[in-house]
Amino acid sequence: MNINSNYKLRNIAGETIVVKQGEADIDLTCIISLNTSARLLWEKLSEKEFTLDEAAQILADTYGIGQEQAVRDATIWVNALKECGVI
């Protein structure tokens, strides 16, 4: 899977948000805000193909959590971005 390259990270008022580039009529009622771990995954995995296991491994390595917890957290991240059409 991969992150749609039309979406970019922006830092606005101390918050990391995802915005879709190149659209004149952007729906500003639907904003995707990323926490620290979600931003980490975005930065490590954008612009390349990746698997759920790769995302989980990044979380496990960075935060020292078990693989089972890392897979659960990575799954939540992937599903949320899929729901928004970003993945």
Account of the protein in words:
Strands 1-2-3 form a 3-stranded antiparallel β-sheet. The protein has one domain (7-83). It contains 3 helices and 3 strands. The protein is an alpha+beta fold and 87 residues long. The model has no long low-confidence stretch (mean pLDDT 91). It has helices at residues 36-45, 52-63, 67-83, and strands at 7-12, 15-20, 32-34.
Brief description of this entry?
With 87 residues, this protein is α+β, with helices and mostly antiparallel strands.
Structural features:
87 residues, alpha+beta, 3-stranded antiparallel β-sheet
User: How would you describe the shape?
Assistant: globular
**Helix-strand sequence:** EEEHHH
* Helical run tally: 3
Global mean pLDDT: 91
Strand order of the largest sheet: 1-2-3
Determine Rg (CA atoms, Å): 13 Å
Number of domains: 1
Please give the alpha-carbon distance between the first and last residues. Answer: 7 Å
- Share of β-strand residues: 15-25%
**How would a textbook summarize the main sheet?**
3 strands, antiparallel
| Poorly predicted tracts of residues | none
Going by helix content, strand content and strand pairing, the class is: alpha+beta
Number of strands: 3
Range of helix content: 40-55%
